[in-house]
Amino acid sequence: MPAVPPDPIPEAVPVAVPGPAGAPAAAGPAPRLIVPVLAFCGAVVAVMQTLVVPLLPHVPRLTGSTPGAAGWLVTITLLTGAVFTPVLGRAGDMYGKRRVLLASLGVLTAGSVLCAVTSDIGVLIAGRALQGAALAVIPLGISIIRDELPPERILPSIALMSSTLGIGAAIGLPVAAVVVENFDWHTMFWASAALGALDLVLVLWIVPESPLRTPGRFDVLGTLGLAATLVGLLLAITQGADWGWTSARTLGLLGGSLLIALLWGRYELRTASPMVDLRVSARPAVLLTNIAGLLIGFAFYANSLVTAQMVQEPTSTGYGLGASIVVSGLCLLPGGLSMVALSPVSARLSAAYGPRTALALAAAVMALGYVVRFFTSHSLWLIVAGATVVSSGTAIAYSALPALVMRAVPVTETGAANGLNTLMRSVGQACCSAVVAAVLAHVTFTVGGRSAPTLHAYLLIFLIAAGAALAALVVTLFLPTARPAGPAGTVAMTKPPCAAPETA
Questions:
Q1: What whole-number distance in Å separates Cα of residue 139 and Cα of residue 211?
Q2: CB 426 within 8 A of CB 237
Q3: 447 pairs with which residues across the strands?
Q4: What is the pLDDT of residues 164-223, one digit of tens each?
Q5: Burial level of 214, CB count in 10 A (0-12/13-18/19+)?
Q6: Torsion from C-alpha of 284, 289, 292, 298, nearest 10 degrees
Q7: d(CA 346, CA 160)
Q8: Counts for the chain of helices (H) and strands (E), in that order
Q9: Letter string b/e over residues 56-84, b meaning 16 or more CB atoms within 10 A of that residue's CB
């Protein structure tokens, strides 16, 4: 298939932001600490997303609620994260990325405190909703990196920032499991509140405000339309297994979200300053990258969802290992460490061969990891090895996706575009969660007086996840080829000709 050159990208026009007269755009007490601080913020946010997973089986007893209500502690973060990620990304482009980043971290800290001071399930769900809204920290951090760093440092820095989603999840599960088993469960929320407060201090001290702004008015109606579409879609996906996929509620939500999406799209194409620039999003380089992001999110999440549950299955099932909560969480830790180690490697791959090639390689590695998992489901160490291979592929993919997005959009739309790509990964994770729940609930047998998933249920999930990774590989092969590399071997990216100095 002949290569399709990417559409021309307009140059960004920097505008001044308030600050000390004559201060450079990257001014600060320690410019080299910008990336570590942003990566730490991303890891803390990712830890928040998985913090309650080890606690879920105990929530009904601890709060006097039902298992269905306890499940909302995970579902609500998915919903608020999906809604606020593109919205806050757009707000960052228009009003200042550092300013919106601080607001997101403040919401995260407030949500953590709210969870720490209560045992009421309703208040806990509200606190988790606030925590989920902070998922926008990661695309905002990537956008700040593009604005503030020289071209040769952009790829390795966004590789680390993007990988924090997987790193934080892999570290958060075993840490939360240790807290649940040994301390009062409120402790983990107090710890998360302290980390959120530390993030706020570090960002205020280290991270400068970008001088780049997107002109125009904030699209309130477009924001409401996007929120309604996402809430309807994700509610149907995440609750469909409980409500019934053909129930009136599920079909009503799916139909309603489709209708709203059509009206929203028509409005966005006609407004002067849209929430999502659908014309830019429809470019093959952007559209195919977002589709690949959805499939990669699906393939990545299956690894996290089933590993801990599989090794905790009792030995009476014939395949389970009867592992504790802590051991099951530790199974994902080597994968998290591999993501840390591979983030600079993945950046070099993108710089040398282009992010398109790096994403194709990542998808192939993830598919290979699930093949390993398919044939090695009886040994703890081989299960860990397979999970680590999948995580390694995820590290490369999460590095390549933001690089592909930033190569294809104007610099003034970086926050919104990265937020949309992060949203697509979240939708992929939601779809994966629904598929995994359906398979494990229906492919079962009776053992020891209870119903349990069969080994074939887990193997089927591995095959589905491998298929998603292979589909991502196919989509990647249709991406337009990269532009010529820059003089330092880096992939060319749109940068403003010069950073406007801050003015008083």
A1: 17
A2: no
A3: 450
A4: 877 777 777 777 778 877 888 899 899 999 999 999 999 999 998 877 777 778 888 988
A5: buried
A6: -140
A7: 9
A8: 18, 2
A9: eeebeeebebeeebbbbbbbbbbbbbbbb
